[in-house]
Amino acid sequence: MSSLLVVSAHAGDFVWRAAGAIALATARGDRAKVLCLTYGERGESAKAWREGKQLEEIKQLRRAEATNAAEVLGAEIEFLDAGDYPLLETPELIDRIVRVYREVEPSVVLTHPLVDPYNQDHPAAARMALHARVLAQAVGYDAPGDPLGAPPVFFFEPHQPEQCDFKPDVLLDITSVFDAKRKAMECLPAQQHMWDYYTDLAKRRGVQLKRNAGPNLGLPHNTMGEAYMRLYPQVTEVLA
Ligand SMILES: [Zn+2]
User: Fold this and answer.
1) pLDDT grade, residue 191 (50/70/90)?
2) Which keywords are on file for this protein (predicted)?
3) CA of 235 to the centre of ligand 1 (A)
4) Over the stretch 4-57, which tens digit does the pLDDT of each residue have?
5) Is 236 within a domain?
6) Domain CATH for 174
7) Sheet holding 31-36, edge to edge
8) Do the domain assignments include residue 151?
9) CA 62 to ligand 1 centroid distance, Å
10) pTM here?
11) Number of domains in the chain
12) 143 alpha carbon to ligand 1 midpoint, in Å?
């Protein structure tokens, strides 16, 4: 069975940026696991703070929302509660991520791009996801399970793609699961302003997807897409 591992800095990130890929994986019968390093309790919960909620309450709120979103997508979810704003890179946290790699044995990994001048937690999560992947590959690394293979890593689309050096080289057709993505987004009322934004983005990426697929595939008018960048070269015997 194939498995997808999504390393998300905050509780909502995986929903806006990768819910389509997750829903496609689980619809195929693959395992999908979301690893949220934090709840986004300080940096991405402004509405709850303005309503006068306190830190622990906000963490529980974001945990419940993200859990509901993962359930809609058919994915498992785990929270490491590492603390956001700032999300600090530590050997202990990287080790915890290694253990998740060894347990999930992902065939594909999704995470944030390595550049984001608007949010330092996102590149920190990406650096740790990549560092842990390499450690999990080492035969001599002391963690349960077998050494990891070489799962390809895809960066999902950041909120300000141009400023994050994000230029898509993969357009994923998420039309068949877009309703699930929208439902997952609607599990996050703390960030309601994002629902329509990411619906519009999926439409635009869908238009680009159709243009790149060409007319012969006969993709429908309402094609929806998600954009990704590959970190490592694609390995193939056939150029396609
Ligand atoms: Zn985030």
Assistant:
1) confident
2) Zinc
3) 30
4) 999 999 999 999 999 999 999 999 999 999 999 999 999 999 999 999 999 999
5) no
6) 3.40.50.10320
7) 76-79, 31-36, 3-8, 108-111, 153-156, 225-230, 170-173
8) yes
9) 12
10) 0.97
11) 1
12) 28
